[in-house]
Structures are given as C-alpha cells and as structure tokens.
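Appendix B, Record 12. Input sequence as logged:
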Amino acid sequence: MAAKSIRKSVSFDDSDGDRVLLDAIATHQANHQQSFSDLCKQALHQYLLSREPTPSVMLFMELQHQIAQLGVRIAALEDNTSISSAFHQADGPLSEISPTDPGAMTTSEPAAATANDAPQPVDDPILTRLGPLLDDF
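Logged structural output:
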C-alpha cells in the first residue's frame, strides 16, 4: 500500500518580494534538476530543523563577542584610571619629602611611649569571661 501524501500549497502574489523569489526559484530549477516540492522541503528542513546557525545568527554571535571584549577593555581602562588617580593622590604627601635630604626620612629623637599607647581595659563582660581561657593558649 502506498504512503499517504499530505499536500500543502504555496501562494505567490504580484508583489516585488514574491516576484524576486519566483525568479530565484526558476533560476535554481534551471541549474539543478530539482522539483519545486523538493526545493521547498529542503528549504523548510534547513530553516526549521537545521542545527547549524544561519549567517544572521553567526553575525549576532560575533557582535555579542565583540561587545564582551569591549566591556573587558573598558573595565581594564577604568581600573587603570582608578589606579593612576590613586598614585596621583599618593604623590602629593610623598612629594613633600625631598629625596635629596636624608634627614627628612628619619627622626632624630625616638618616639616616646605615652599612656595612650598602652592597652586599655575592655569593659565587655563576654571578653572578660573569655580572657582567662585565652591565656591558656
């Protein structure tokens, strides 16, 4: 028993787009011995079932890649700018010390310890209770 075939039809009107498409179909059929039905099936299969990206999808993917690369470059430039500005801010106080004056880098009198430098007792009750336990370590 023969397989039942399903028929679908395609209608073309007198628009410029349809005329261009009909001319392309006629040119293709002249160069290839292929029926209109086979050409439609091949085109529909490629358009609907193909796993290979179309040229427009490939172009879109390439543009996304270029945008991502530009984002990385912009981030790098922003980092360089912030590092550069940090160096410029640090140059201010450091530039006040003359590198040719060796006495500017050292102090002549030792730093005196003040009462403020000694550890202050902590009034936290939890730390007071844990303090003796920490001394054992």
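The chain has a mean pLDDT of 75.
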